[in-house]
Amino acid sequence: MWYGRDMRIGILGSGLMGSKLGTIFARAGHGVVFSYSRDRKKLETLAKDAGKNASAGTPVDAARNADVVLLAVHWTRVEDVLAQAGTLSGKVLLTCTLPMRKDDSELVIGHDTSGAEALATKVRGAHVVSAFSTVPSEVLFPVFERSRKGRLPDLVYCGDDAEAKKKAAGLIRDVGFHPVDLGALSMARYMEPFSLLVAQLAYEGSGGPELAYRFEQFGK
Ligand SMILES: NC(=O)c1ccc[n+]([C@@H]2O[C@H](COP(=O)([O-])OP(=O)(O)OC[C@H]3O[C@@H](n4cnc5c(N)ncnc54)[C@H](OP(=O)(O)O)[C@@H]3O)[C@@H](O)[C@H]2O)c1
C-alpha cells in the first residue's frame, strides 16, 4: 500500500542505512515501503515509527510502482534481494551498497570498475545512481534535524541518467545535504574507496561518525 504525496520509494534492506533513510524520506513526505528484513515485526515497527507515509511489505511490494528503489543490503545479499524484488526496469535504483567481502575487510571489486557499475549490468533497464555510501548511518538523523539551520554539508553522488540524478539530488536535499554531482556512474570507482576512508575515520579514528560527517565539509 502506498501513502505519501511525492515520490514512492521502495526500501530494499531495512538495516542501519535503509531504516534511517526510509524514515527520513517518509517524514519528508514521500511514500515509503520498508522491506527485506529477517524480522517482519521489525519492518512493521519501523513503518509505524516513520509515520503515516510508511508501510511494511515484501521486496516485490517495495519495488512495485516505486519511482525510486533504495538498495541498502550487504553486497553478499544483492542477488537474493534483486531476485525477490522482481523487475526494476525503468526505475531509479539508488544504491548505498558497497561491494565488500562477506567479512567487510575489503572491496571485492578492482579499480577498473565499481559495485555501482556491476549493479547496472545486473539490473538492466534500471537507472542506477550511487549515493549515501560516503556517510555513516549515525549522522543521518542529526543532519536531517539540523537541515533547516545554516549551511548544508556536501554529499557526493554519481550516475548516467539525468532524470534519475535529479530525483536522487532531491532526496539528498530532503535528508539535509547539499548534493554534489560527481558525473558519470563510473565515478563510483573513486567514490567507493572514498567511502571506506570515511568509514575508517568514523569507526577506527578518534572522532567517530561526527568526524566523518565533518570530513565532507573539508575545504570550506
Ligand atoms: N551502516 C553504515 O553506516 C553504512 C554506510 C555507508 C554504506 N553502507 C553500506 O550500505 C549497505 C547496507 O548497510 P547496513 O549497515 O544498513 O546493513 P545492515 O544494517 O546489515 O542491513 C542490511 C539489511 O539486509 C537485511 N537482510 C535480509 N536478509 C538477510 C540475510 N539473510 N543476511 C543478512 N542481512 C539480511 C537485514 O535484515 P535484518 O533486519 O534481519 O538484520 C537488514 O535489514 C552495505 O552495503 C554497507 O556497506 C553502510
List the SSEs and their pairings.
Elements: E1 8-12, H1 16-27, E2 31-35, H2 40-50, E3 54-56, H3 59-63, E4 68-71, H4 78-85, E5 92-95, H5 115-122, E6 127-131, H6 140-146, E7 154-159, H7 162-175, E8 178-181, H8 188-203, H9 208-215
Parallel strand pairs: 1-2, 1-4, 2-3, 4-5, 5-6, 7-8
Antiparallel strand pairs: 6-7
The protein binds NADP nicotinamide-adenine-dinucleotide phosphate.
NADP nicotinamide-adenine-dinucleotide phosphate is lined by residues 13-18, 36-39, 42, 72-75, 77, 96-98, 100, 133, 136-137, 195.
Give an overview of the whole structure.
The longest helix has 16 residues. It is globular and about 40 Å long. With 220 residues, it is of the alpha/beta class. Helix 1 packs parallel to helix 2 and helix 8 packs antiparallel against helix 9. The model has no long low-confidence stretch (mean pLDDT 92). Helices cover 40% and strands 16% of the residues. The chain starts with 7 loop residues before the first strand and ends in a 5-residue tail after the last helix. The protein has an eight-stranded mixed sheet, with helices on both faces. Bound molecules: NADP nicotinamide-adenine-dinucleotide phosphate. The site of NADP nicotinamide-adenine-dinucleotide phosphate (NAP) has 24 residues, from helix 1.
